[in-house]
What we know:
Blueprint: H1 2-35, H2 45-54, H3 58-68, H4 73-85, H5 89-114, H6 117-129, H7 131-137, H8 143-163, H9 166-182, H10 184-204, H11 212-238, H12 265-275, H13 283-304, H14 306-314, H15 316-321, H16 325-351, H17 364-378, H18 385-405, H19 412-422, E1 428-433, H20 438-451, E2 458-460, H21 467-476, E3 483-489, H22 493-505, E4 510-517, E5 521-527
Parallel strand pairs: 1-2, 1-3
Antiparallel strand pairs: 3-5, 4-5
Amino acid sequence: MRTAEAAAPGRAAARDRAALAALVGVFVLGAALRVYQLGAESYWFDEIIMVHVTDQPTGDLLRQLFRSARAPLYPLLGHVWVQLFGTGEAATRSLSALCGALSIPLMYLVGEKLFSRKVGFIAALIMTLSAFHVYYSQEYRYYSLVMLLTLAAALFFIEALDTGRLRHFLLFALAGVALFYAHPLSAALFIGALGLFFLLLLVWKPAHRARLPAWLASQALIVVGAAPTVLLRFVRASNGVADTSTLPDGGGLAPWWLEAPPIWEPVRTVVNFMILGIRYVRWLPALAAVLVFAVALFVVIWRRGGREWLATLRATPRRVRSQPEQWQRSAVLVLFWFAGPIVLAYLSSFTVLPMYVERYLSPAAPAMYLLVAVVLVTLGDAVPEVLSVGLVAALLAFSLQQYYARDIKEQWDEMAAFVEANAGEDDLIAFGSDFGNLEETVTIRQSFDWYYPGEAPACDVDPTADDATLLAQLRACEGAGERVWLVLRWSDDPRMAAFGEYLEAQQGGGLLGSRWFEGNIAVYRLGLPPEG
Length: 532
């Protein structure tokens, strides 16, 4: 008996070492996946904006952040980062890769705190293999940092609920303020969802009413701390300065390009949180994985006996209802964390102003990973976790393989190389936005110029103008000759074909060719008719 008792601590220590080794392995794998091919693709439109914002003198950066009301935390970190590591694709994106890698152990800690080590580990594994999370960990933009700060805020919020201590509520508030400075809209959706949960908790579990003063203090700190960036954005938008106008008079708070989402968009969001997009699904390997899972499950059912297995499966809802109060509270919290931002953004897009963009909803992605992990563990008595987790991991891995194998960003480097190889000595390069937006045209030009080694004359035009006006704009460009390369983003082939026909009618011109590149960017080669 004493021998068995003495052996028990040894077995527990061995299990702890094995669990730690597995967690370290997942973290190392996650870090490696976020570094792999980090600089393989060129910057895309939004990344070019961030590069130009961060790669300037500190004073100029601060003035631009104030004028544009841009969320300042990531640009400030990026400014320091480019001073240390440079402006290459891998160098800048490594900031997001670091945030993404650090999110994995935080994901584990949140899952362990809410449910169990097993749930935390599975959630961390799902995050590790999620193409959605990998993508934003390899982009020089806000959203990897947003998810990291979301997990930190969630961890402090959970501690605050458990202990009721003011310092934990204040730590939650500080993380929430940082989240507002990383991305105000994402922060508002996430903090709002947790606020709704806490209000429900006051009614559902009256014992938590003792935590109300500390929670109110945390909310007040968030409001006061976030007020400068939020109010600046309101002021700049109302003055038509911030790049967020939607109203005819130039005012507004939603991005000018954003519209209300399709009715089915939340379903697409839930899928994309895992695999980034249906186009990354490899159907044959996926079906093979499902078949292997089905065969293995059949063997499990056959060994247990069909009736016994069905009884175990039917008992699952009863086991969920019999879970401890803290487990139930955690489940409801995660549901609010996941569904709250999606529902709030969706309803607002039809009632107040459009704000439904998947990357803005990135704070909800970790909650989804937790929900999937909870479901897999809850079904563990009927469906062995080695099978269910293995199936999910295989499906995610197949999607992730396609993410690495395919180009996904706008291939400005390929376009620049194509023009450089085919442009004549007297050719002109013109840039335009299909929205007729001058700021977008400037960034299109910056994206192309970042990779173009040539010195061809260039100018900006408005391709949305009528044919005669567009032709006049091209002719007015300094150095305009007989041929023009017109670079467009999200272009319209019928529009360019019609313009080519107009040029032909002027005797001597026309659309000489075109080429599309990944990311819906295109270049059109135009022959201009002689003047007169």
